[in-house]
């Protein structure tokens, strides 16, 4: 990939527990090019949110990054001193969280919170200048009457409006990379469509790269250039978006595709995946998906498959891919 | 035509909003549900869909009489639910049950699963200790759990398993109608599919009726026989699921359908059609409540509220311009690419095999 803005190598993030270290992210390699969107898809507990917190170096204790490198624009974020990291976090890497109600401070106005984010990276800017830029940031995310909204508190706004404020804040310093963790999950479907449109337009305007973390295959199909499917702390399949949908390789990807109810068709039964995600403190031996996999054989219960390339851009971690060969 | 299992007429619930602590005064009313009527037959699933604040959950609670209506009637099995008191109301709850959205908040963490499932039986004085224990074991089997799970506590289960427990609890007293209030929206997609399949299997086996509250139209399409679309406390369109999805006659229904992200990367992206947010139910717009977001609104829509009118067989919409809506281009299901289709078929075959072996092993 030419000059990726972010390259993650061998990332392992663990949480200390009474039974020793529990790996939430266990040996992940990913990269994302400038101006592109990488979708990270998986169910709860697959490690996708811990992965994004690792990039921001915001993993809460008792968690820590135990191994790997996170190269942002060529620099390893994991070896930066805290002060340098603070200069990147929010300035060059923005973050949009899922729940705009809990991630905005209820006792400050929307405008004050955007100003605070900008002042942190530009302490000498004058108050009128910061205010003007914050109003411009609200205007960029298509908030009507931005000067009036500047003085409003989060509770005075609808969910969609609050998420626009979150996006305005994340983009206020014109970052090169935005990590959006389930940015539309808490929103109604018509508002979700508006926010996704907005992210697309802003990406075109600014050329930022987006890491989009979601459980919704519909959202990644519309937004992402590449998709990484995660299961139990590992990337099990990674490919351009069209290949994930047209040429899915991993049985877990197949199960996810079969599980989604589609609006265009009505099938009598959905192809659910039996069982549940294993707890991270007790992963099954061998392939972590083997207890739920309809293709699993004895080898899958013993030997953990590693990501291998199928074609030039498509990698999969399964002993049996492509499954029709078994 | 036989009498419907459930018939709701002009159901209305207004909530007074008060301002001030000491000299509190009414600041206005939220018209959460405003004149909702529908019927539900035995063995049928009616879905109530809409965005947050449309009144779908309030409607569900009114049907169960967990809250009192401001106006309107609810007839269930030929009795007026809104007029019941005392013993008849108690025994009504045997016939009418609910499955809640949040499987973490709706199970008492201090009770074992066995106690949770036995409680409705005790409340309604059904059976003795012995027969109740048998019933609990049978219920667990019915929802795909094992008898030994009765000794465990809710925290030992995953979200999907907890939702199965919630369903088993609703089934305990053999109801004829279960209100499902967003039963799968808190679940992961693979688990959501399991629970949808379970609800459909149970309906077929037990002849249940569902009043299915949901915001996800794709889920609704797989569950519902009929669909009612709500907006700001009112039903704007109601009809058989097939007709409503193939040929929606209200602009809001079309907006909802268009907004769903499709898991198909080859589909040309459609720009969002509705602008803005849902207005406050405290101060709904005059005329048609959707006119502020409707791409087709004309002057008449701003002054005159449309009423539900027939647009097809059992299909009604409340829109002045319903007749002018062009037919919706049939959305051809994106045919899966050959490799994907082949593997999904293989996956389905393997899965059916695996399920058949587990069934024969347990029986």
Describe the structure in your own words.
The complex is a heterodimer of chains A (326) and B (363). Chain A is α/β, with parallel strands linked by helices. In chain A, 33% of the residues lie in helices and 24% in strands. Chain A contains 12 helices and 12 strands. In chain A, the strands form 2 sheets. In chain A, strands 6-7-8-3-9-10-12-11 form an 8-stranded mixed β-sheet, with helices on both faces. Chain A has a 4-stranded antiparallel β-sheet with strand order 2-1-4-5. The model of chain A has no long low-confidence stretch (mean pLDDT 90). Chain B has 363 residues and is an alpha/beta fold. In chain B, strands 6-7-8-3-9-10-12-11 form an 8-stranded mixed β-sheet, with helices on both faces. In chain B, strands 2-1-4-5 form a 4-stranded antiparallel β-sheet. Chain B has helices spanning 56-63, 86-95, 113-123, 129-142, 159-171, 189-206, 217-223, 241-246, 251-259, 299-303, 338-362, and strands at 6-19, 25-40, 45-49, 71-76, 79-80, 96-99, 177-181, 209-214, 226-231, 234-240, 309-312, 315-317. Chain B contains 11 helices and 12 strands. The model of chain B has no long low-confidence stretch (mean pLDDT 89). In chain B, β1 (6-19) and β2 form a beta hairpin. The chains are: A alpha/beta (326), B alpha/beta (363). The interface between A and B is large, with 59 and 66 residues.
């Amino acid at each position: 990939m030419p000059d990726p803005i972010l390259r993650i190598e061998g990332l392992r993030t663990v949480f200390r527990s009474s039974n020793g270290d529990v790996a939430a992210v266990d040996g992940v390699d990913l990269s994302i090019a400038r101006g592109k969107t990488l979708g990270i898809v998986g169910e709860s507990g697959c490690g996708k949110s811990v992965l994004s917190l690792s990039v921001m170096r915001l993993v809460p204790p008792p968690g820590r990054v135990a191994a790997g490198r996170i190269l942002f624009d060529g620099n390893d974020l994991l070896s930066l001193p805290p002060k340098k990291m603070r200069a990147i976090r929010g300035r060059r890497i923005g973050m949009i969280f899922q729940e705009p109600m809990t991630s905005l401070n209820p006792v400050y106005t929307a405008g004050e919170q955007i100003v605070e984010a900008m002042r942190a990276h530009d302490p000498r800017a004058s108050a009128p200048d910061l205010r003007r830029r914050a109003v411009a940031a609200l205007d960029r995310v298509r908030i009507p009457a931005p000067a009036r909204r500047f003085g409003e508190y989060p509770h005075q706004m609808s969910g969609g409006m609050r998420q626009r404020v979150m996006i305005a804040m994340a983009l206020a310093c014109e970052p090169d990379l935005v990590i959006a963790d389930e940015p539309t999950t808490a929103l109604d479907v018509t508002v979700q469509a508006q926010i996704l449109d907005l992210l697309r337009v802003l990406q075109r305007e600014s050329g930022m790269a987006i890491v989009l973390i979601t459980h919704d295959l519909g959202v990644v199909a519309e937004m992402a250039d590449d998709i990484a499917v995660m299961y139990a702390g590992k990337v099990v399949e990674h490919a351009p978006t069209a290949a994930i949908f047209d040429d899915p390789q991993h049985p877990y990807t197949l199960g996810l595709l079969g599980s989604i109810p589609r609006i265009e068709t009505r099938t009598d039964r959905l192809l659910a995946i039996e069982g549940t995600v294993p707890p991270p403190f007790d992963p099954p031996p061998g392939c972590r998906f083997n207890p739920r996999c309809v293709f699993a054989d004895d080898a899958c219960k013993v030997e953990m498959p590693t990501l291998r390339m199928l074609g030039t851009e498509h990698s999969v971690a399964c002993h049996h891919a492509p499954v029709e060969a078994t | 035509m036989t009498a419907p299992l459930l018939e709701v007429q002009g159901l209305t619930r207004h909530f007074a909003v008060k301002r001030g602590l000491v000299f509190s005064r009414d600041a206005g009313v939220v018209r959460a549900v405003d004149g909702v009527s529908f019927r539900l037959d035995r063995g049928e699933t009616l879905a109530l869909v809409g965005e947050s604040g449309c009144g779908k959950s309030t409607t569900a609670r009114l049907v169960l009489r967990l809250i009192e209506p401001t106006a309107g009637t609810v007839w269930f099995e030929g009795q007026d639910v809104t007029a019941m008191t005392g013993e008849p109301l108690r025994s009504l709850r045997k016939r009418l049950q609910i499955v809640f959205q949040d499987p973490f908040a709706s199970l008492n963490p201090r009770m074992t699963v066995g106690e949770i499932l036995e409680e409705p039986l005790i409340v309604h004085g059904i059976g003795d200790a012995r027969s109740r224990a048998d019933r609990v074991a049978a219920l667990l089997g019915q929802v795909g759990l094992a008898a030994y799970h009765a000794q465990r506590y809710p925290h030992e289960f995953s979200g999907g398993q907890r939702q199965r427990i919630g369903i088993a609890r609703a089934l305990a007293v053999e109801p004829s109608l279960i209100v499902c209030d967003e039963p799968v929206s808190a679940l992961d997609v693979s688990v959501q599919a399991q629970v949808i399949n379970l609800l459909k299997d149970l309906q077929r086996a037990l002849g249940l009726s569902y009043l299915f509250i949901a915001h996800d139209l794709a889920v609704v399409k797989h569950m519902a026989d009929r669909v009612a679309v709500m907006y700001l406390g009112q039903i704007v369109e109601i009809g058989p699921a097939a007709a409503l999805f193939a040929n929606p006659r209200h602009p809001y229904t079309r907006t909802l359908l268009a907004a769903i992200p499709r898991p198909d990367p080859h589909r040309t992206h459609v720009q969002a059609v509705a602008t803005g947010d849902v207005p406050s139910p405290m101060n709904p717009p005059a005329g048609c409540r959707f006119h502020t977001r409707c791409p087709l609104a004309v002057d008449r829509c701003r002054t005159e509220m449309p009423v539900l009118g027939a647009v097809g067989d059992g299909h009604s919409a409340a829109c002045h311009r319903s007749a002018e809506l062009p037919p919706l281009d049939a959305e051809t299901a994106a045919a899966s690419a050959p490799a994907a289709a082949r593997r999904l078929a293989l996956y389905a075959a393997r899965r059916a095999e695996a399920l058949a072996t587990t069934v024969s092993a347990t029986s």
